[in-house]
Amino acid sequence: MTPRSAASRRAGRAARRGDAPRPAGPAPDRAALRAAALSHVARFSTTVAGMERVLTRVMQRWGRRAQAEGMEPADIAARIGESAPDIAAVIADMQALGAIDDARFSESRARSLTRAGRSRRAIGAHLAARGVDGAVVTQAMEETLGARGEEGRETELAAALVFVRKRRAGPFRRPEEEGEAAATRDRRAMEAMARSGFSRDIALRALEMDAQEAEERIWRMKSA
């Protein structure tokens, strides 16, 4: 028996459920890709690389439906390949409209992640994973978090305090938690902070800080 393709299996499952498979129709053209892009940016903020992935998936979904209807894989691959200029043009259009802006995305994401207790290193990795250029990431973080100097360290410390507060460690420990239990909680928080990209110096300062000062620093960071 000849093995069935994944597309054929999906079509078979849809038929058994009584669902009418969606016709493949013609391959998405530039207008269809633009409509998909507008629909996406209306709901989500994204990057150039993120939008490229979204539109590529639009073409791939069409390809799976076309294959289920019997279209030759080589013809499908050729049509998907031909869509590259359309995808690039749609992305350029979204940038011209201001719907996609990697710098603005990076600044907004850096600010929100810092307030959520993420380290500078973790934020850089997060943005890089979304395809943002390294120079754009560096500039965005310097503008929102401060340069790698005293200002940047103060922001990083405030983020570390948010992290510690979530762990109920250091100045945020429960009053009844003392001795070995307190030491164990702080040690585990220290290990977690190292894994999350905080330096040892920042982690120690956060864990050893007075509770009132810690709350004030968090408030100032989130109010900025």
From TrEMBL:
Keyword Cytoplasm in record: yes
Domain RecX second three-helical: start-end pairs: 101-141
Source superkingdom: Bacteria
Coiled-coil residue windows: none
GO cellular component, one term: cytoplasm
Subcellular location: Cytoplasm
Broad class of where this protein is predominantly found: cytoplasm
Keywords assigned by UniProt, alphabetized: Cytoplasm
Region of interest (Disordered), residue spans: 1-28
Pfam families: RecX_HTH2
Protein family membership: Belongs to the RecX family.
Name assigned to this protein: Regulatory protein RecX
Species of the source: Novacetimonas pomaceti
